[in-house]
Amino acid sequence: MPRGRYSLHDPHDHTPLAEEHFHCAPGPSGWRYVAQLTTPAGDHSGSVDLALDELGRPIRLELHAGGWQVRGAALDGVTWVRTDPAGAHATEGNVPAHAFTGTSPAFLVATTRLLRLTPSGSATRVRLVRFTDPVLAPRTVDQSWALLKREAHATDNGPLTVDEYQVTALDTGEQHSVHIAGDVVLAAPGIELEDLESPPSVFA
Question: What angle (nearest 5°) sits at the alpha carbon of residue 141, between those of residues 137 and 147?
């Protein structure tokens, strides 16, 4: 069960945003990721709880940030309920999309589990609902993902397989790279892996 810590920063000006203390593991039904977020000053600022089924679909999502809460799942596309900090209003949303995304590295791993790409030059299009910080506002985004290469790197614990993905935002054409080993994000815009207590899980 990998445990560790990511630092999250603004990908444009590198302003520190948060630290995400996580643990994750594959299980009989899929994969689960749980994390607590703290501000750069060390105050608690939110949480992430994401569970996928064996096909990579989100069977449960719970996000907390700035007093806001989102609960969601794959149902008739994706469906969610967003609750305000006072708890007085809850709004339900539904979009014909494949999965969710957001600032947490968990969503990058989840997208790769859903797409199951093999190394090639061809890209696969995916529609996602992104919950934006700090109020978890939903926004539908279209991306294309391509697995550029898969390389094995020698480590003290044996070979570590690292996948390099190219992600394109279809509304702007902006591209960036994401490096993932198993269920751990090694590098991505705005994300740095600061600490890892045990090796990434190896998916079958």
Answer: 130
**Rounded distance, CA 123 to CA 129, Å?**
19
pTM (2 d.p.) = 0.95
- 106-109 contacts: CB < 8 A, separation 24 or more? 106/22, 106/24, 106/33, 106/35, 106/48, 106/50, 107/50, 108/178, 108/180, 108/185, 108/188, 108/191, 109/24, 109/31, 109/33, 109/180, 109/183, 109/184, 109/185
How do residues 4-45 score in pLDDT, each as one tens digit? 999 999 998 999 999 999 999 998 789 999 999 999 999 999
